[in-house]
Each structure stands twice: as structure tokens, then as C-alpha cells.
Amino acid sequence: DTAAIPHPRWRLPVLGDVLGINIRTPLQNSMEIGKTLGPIFERDVLGNRFVFASGADMVAELSDESRFAKHLAPGVASLRELGGDGLFTAYNHEPNWSKAHNLLAPAFTKSAMRSYHRTMLDVAGELTEYWDRRTDGTPVDVSSDMTKLTLETIGRTGFSYSFDSFERSRPHPFVQAMVGALSHSQRTTFVKTSALGRLLTRRADRRNARNLEYLAEVVDEVIRARRGSGDTGPEDLLELMLRAAREDHPDKIDELNIRHQVVTFLVAGHETTSGALSFALYYLSRHPEVLAKARAEVDEVWGQETPEFEQIAKLRYVRRVLDESLRLWPTAPAYGREATVDTTLVGKYPMKVGDWVLVLIPALHRDPVWGDDPEAFDPDNFLPERIRSRPAHVYKPFGTGERACIGRQFAVHEAVLVLGTILRRYDIVGDPDYQLKIAERLTLMPEGFTLQLRCR
Ligand code: HEM
């Protein structure tokens, strides 16, 4: 038997389900609505229909690649202004997706990770140098500093380009332009399809155009810096793409697509990892027993030595802290899935080819399979025996299937390395009055979260 998809009770003509809508925090707003409507529900905004799914059984089916594939939800589709047919924003059928995927896959193997290790340590060293000067009680802005670190890491490992993040008092203007572009995409998602909406966003569109222009200039500068340095550069993402073009490789991509890949990696490669690190530090500062255990592990596994590549993955408990932080707040909090055949979701909700839903990841991560108190922060949720006791497909911070995150191992290696470095060096003290507040700009980020540092 088929069932109707629930929707909010007060549905207005034309405007739809706009009562109680919050355009600054649409994700948290949808989680709130889901609490009463359940694991699948619909929101109609100005005639745009959004279906959100988060039930473990539903997401398991949506992960079946023989029936479903990635869908570019409106908030992501509007990012094509920035990323074009780059990896993240490419439609499944676009030839540049498989070309770039094949071309860049070697940059995400274990041996590639090994080659980034040194640079990741260097950047973590710059963070501690920067933080050492702030151990006098001045609180540090965690998200801002984690963003310096992750932007620097992807710039140098991927493109051998430094943003000089730790030499600046303010964030690199790339960050502000990117945040502007992401926020713009999010805010205009609901309104863009109506004429009235387009009128309302005209000024913001002009500001956005300036941000996009600036981001394109940075990308040009990154490529120019490489070209100026002679023909072959260091083995990095950019070199893989430029070399394929030079050598007329069957998977070579053209100049415009290379630029789309560069901006894609600069954005996707740092914003979400920065949020993940910030949430992890937030939870560590709130859970002294977890912090003590994590630090004891770092002291035992690393001692006072500079950690080797293999010693990062040995921080099993720190890894569980990261996994658990990404359970509660997956920093890329939703992804779209569309039916590739006529089908019925969990035997109840018919879907025609092209029909799509958004997987609401934080709600999936609070499904009853996660136990009686899914809001509680508990790294032991990721003990191997607990993982085995849960069904598959209930943990999706990196998406699913062929279009899942290519940078997952990169992000995990970087984040565990950095958390270990911080825990070993500092006592971290959060502001006891701070209430977790989450900013949304397609991604999630703790807002206004500070730490006081003391060298141990
Ligand atoms: C795709 C999350 C770090 C590059 C994705 C997707 C998710 C995700 C959910 C799938 C989106 C969809 O289905 O529409 C995350 C999180 C990260 C992270 C939570 C950190 C904690 C990274 C890093 C890089 C990266 C470090 C690059 C170095 C990409 C790219 C794609 C992607 C290129 C598109 C892949 C494709 O469609 O072929 N990521 N990501 N991500 N991510 Fe990540």
C-alpha cells in the first residue's frame, strides 16, 4: 500500500509551507520539523517541493546504486556558477565527471596521503606557533583558526600554493568570498524559481557576482603561479591535470574544467574539514573524561616524537571522537538522491524516474538505530562491536556510492593529525557559558566558539 508523504499542517495557497520557515538556518529548521513529521516529509516553498528522508531503512534503499543516483539539489545546482562541471557539481552524465574522477583518483590513494603527511605536519606546526602566542588567556576563535589551517593544507598539498593564512591578522579574502557564495546559494534556493523571488535577490546577485569574480581571480593566480615556475611542477592535483593536458592523455580535461576543479577542491577541500575540527574541539572541551582519554592515547602512541604517517591512524580513540562529532553535526549536512528507475521507496512511497529526495544526514544520525539517547556525545558509538551491531548505511557524513566524497581519507588524516597535535600541546578551556550555535551556509559551522589555551 502506498502512503502520502506528511507535510506541515498550515499550508498556504501559493506560498506553501512558509510559516515557521527560517532561511538562515534551513537545515536546523528542517530537523525541527522532522521531529513532529517523522522520517520522511515534504516542504513546499513558493511552489518548490522538497522531500526530506532520514529513516535508516529509507537511506539504505537510497544507497542502492541500481535504483538511485546523486541528484544536484537546488542549493548545489546553483553552485554550478562557481564549480561548473567540476567533480562536486557535475551532473552524473557529464563526461568531465568520469575523466576528472579517473585523472584525480591517484591523488587520493594511501600512498598519496603518505606524501601529504609532511605538509600536513608543517601546517599544524604553523597553527601551534600561532597559538603559542595566544596562551596568555586571550580566547582564540576556533572556527576561524581551523579554517586558516585547512585552507592552507589544501592549498599546499593540492596546488603547492600558500595562502599565508597564519601571517595574516584577518582571514584570507578567499574565505570571505567563498562564505558569501555558499550563503548566497543557500538563501536563494527557495526563491530563485519565482519571478518575485528573482526580483528580491537582485542586489544580492550583484554582490555574489563580485564574489565569484574574485574567486576566479584567485584560481587564475594559483594556476599562473605554477605556469610561471617552469613546465613540470610538484606531484599534486594541479600537476595531474596539467600533465594530462600536456601529454594528450585520453582523460585530459580542458582549461575551463581545470579551473572548475581548482575552485572545487579549494572549497570542498577545506570548509567541511574546518567545521569537523571545530565541532570536535567543542565536544572535547565539554567532555573532560573524553578529552583525558584522547590525550592519554596521544601521549602513549606519539610520545614526544614527531608522528610518522602510520602513527596517525593509530589514534583510534581520537578517530572515534571525530566520527562522533561528524555523527551529531555532519558538516555537509544533506545530499540529494534521484530515482533512476520507477520504484517505490520502502514499499510505500512511489517514485518515478527523476523524482528526488534530500537525505537529512543529522536526522539519519539520530535514527532509533543509534540507541535511546542519540543526542548524547559518545565516541564509543564507534567501537568496532557497536558498529557491527548496527545496520549498514546509517552513517553517511561523506555521502554515498560513486559520488561519495573523494577526499574522505584526506580529511580524516588531516583532522586526526591536528586534533592529536592540539591535545598533546595545550590544555583547552571552553567558555562555560557558551551555548552551541550553528551557522549554516550549505555547510555547518559552530559560531562564536572560543577556547582559552595553556601550554601543558
Ligand atoms: C563530495 C562531505 C572533505 C572533496 C562530498 C559529499 C559529501 C562530502 C557528503 C557528497 C555530496 C553529494 O552527494 O552531493 C565531506 C566532509 C568532509 C569532506 C564532511 C570533511 C570532514 C573533503 C576534502 C576534499 C573533498 C578534504 C578534497 C581534498 C570532495 C569532492 C566531492 C566531495 C571533490 C565530489 C565527489 C564526486 O562527486 O565525484 N564530500 N567532504 N571533500 N568531496 Fe568531500
Automatic annotation (TrEMBL):
Residues bound to heme: C405
Molecular-function annotations in GO: heme binding; iron ion binding; monooxygenase activity; oxidoreductase activity, acting on paired donors, with incorporation or reduction of molecular oxygen
UniProt xrefs under CDD domains: CYP120A1 (cd11068)
Keywords from the UniProt entry: FAD, Flavoprotein, FMN, Heme, Iron, Metal-binding, Monooxygenase, NADP, Oxidoreductase, Transport
InterPro entries reported in the protein's UniProt record: Cyt_P450 (IPR001128), Cyt_P450_CS (IPR017972), Cyt_P450_E_grp-I (IPR002401), Cyt_P450_sf (IPR036396), Cytochrome_P450_Monoox (IPR050196)
Cofactor: FAD; FMN; heme
Segments crossing the lipid bilayer: none
Aminoacyl-tRNA synthetase found in the keyword field: no
Keyword Zinc: no
Family statement: Belongs to the cytochrome P450 family.
Protein's UniProt name: Cytochrome P450
Species this chain originates from: Rhodococcus oxybenzonivorans
